[in-house]
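pipeline: protein-struct stage 2 | run 1193 | 3-hydroxybutyryl-CoA dehydrogenase
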Amino acid sequence: MIKNIGIIGGGTMGSGIAQVAAAAGCSVKLFDTNSEALGKAKASLEKIMNRLVEKGRIDASEKSRIEENIQYVNTLKDLADSDLTIEAIIENLEIKKKVFQELESFVSEKCIIASNTSSLSIASIAASLKDPSRCVGIHFFNPAPLMKLVEVIPAIQTSKATLKTSEETIKNWGKVVAIAKDTPGFIVNRVARPFYGESLRIYEEGIADFITIDSALKTKGGFRMGPFELMDFIGNDVNYTVTETVFEAFYYDPRYKPAFTQKRFAEAGYLGRKSGKGYYEYDESGQMSVR
Ligand code: NAI
């Protein structure tokens, strides 16, 4: 029975995953090395909950139940009693490995240690553990509370029991599970890389500006967001790192080549929604406008 959930990283994804698990009745501990991130996660959850109450989707008692199910903690050790931990920190293999090793030194033998990585190999993360069979990829999409799909990725070391429990847990949280092999980008990000990549090339070749590209894909393609809006939503830093990792992991296959525009936006700190400026501009309330 998976009841106690530890989430590592309280940014965009970690805070969303915490909300999903808390809404499903789990007791969640959310850890981040940056206390400001935890404060932001708490404030953002409250805002979301208030909106849901206003819209009549949940009542006040449901709101308090979800909020009370999440504890914001300042040390990794606070996650010691977890049945399942999901890591959603920076997309960097060495840093993730260190966190996993530390975590394994105090959680129970039965605790499943999962990563929400978009592009790193689960086998390489699992290899950092003494018991790699407890490691699995559990990949949510942004925003985690709204996106139905979750990819569950067994590494070659992952045990059948770990996979089964992970799959059942995520289904119990109301999500649709797609099991994917441990290959770069799994399913969705593999398809998505050329989508962003080709849009960036169209922009760089001067064929159309990004407003026109977004508008064309929304109007004709039926996409809810165009590629540039979506990159701003994901975070241009996160999206660039994922593109670079998938490109390298496919032995530099040009289909996945990152674009300089993407790199420059990340370097400039034009991260998108989270920094208030990306391909578009965003005000305090999140309202998007053309820069
Ligand atoms: P983010 O930048 O919004 O949040 C990352 C958080 O991790 C930050 O609050 C940071 O303070 C914290 N952190 C960094 N190092 C830490 C450590 N050692 N221990 C504890 N906390 C630490 O990033 P985001 O977007 O939430 O991404 C997190 C992970 O989820 C990445 O692996 C990313 O590839 C993956 N992902 C991202 C998606 C997206 O659309 N942004 C979608 C699906 C997966």
